[in-house]
Amino acid sequence: FLTAEGNLVAAAVKAIQKVTGIKTALSTSGGTSDGRFIAPTGAQVLELGPVNATIHQINECVSMDDINALEEIYFQMLVELLV
C-alpha cells in the first residue's frame, strides 16, 4: 500500500528533513505490516521507525542516536500537525 499524500505524509517528510537533513522519498519497501489493512479505510497510514540492520535477528538492537532522532522527528510532526 502507499498512502496518498496528505497532512500526515507532508508532516513526516518535513520533520525528517528538519531533524536529519535527509530529503526522504516515499517507499513501500520493507516487511509486511498491518498498515495494509488500515489503508483501504481511507486513513493516512505511515510507518516510520529507525533503520535497523539487526532487525529480527539474534542480538537485535537499535542505536540510541537513532532513537533520539526518531523522538525528535515525531515531536516535529506533532508540532507541524497541531500548531
UniProtKB/TrEMBL annotation:
<dbReference type="InterPro" id="IPR002933">
    <property type="entry name" value="Peptidase_M20"/>
</dbReference>
<dbReference type="GO" id="GO:0016787">
    <property type="term" value="F:hydrolase activity"/>
</dbReference>
<keyword id="KW-0378">Hydrolase</keyword>
<protein>
    <submittedName>
        <fullName>M20/M25/M40 family metallo-hydrolase</fullName>
    </submittedName>
</protein>
<dbReference type="Pfam" id="PF01546">
    <property type="entry name" value="Peptidase_M20"/>
</dbReference>
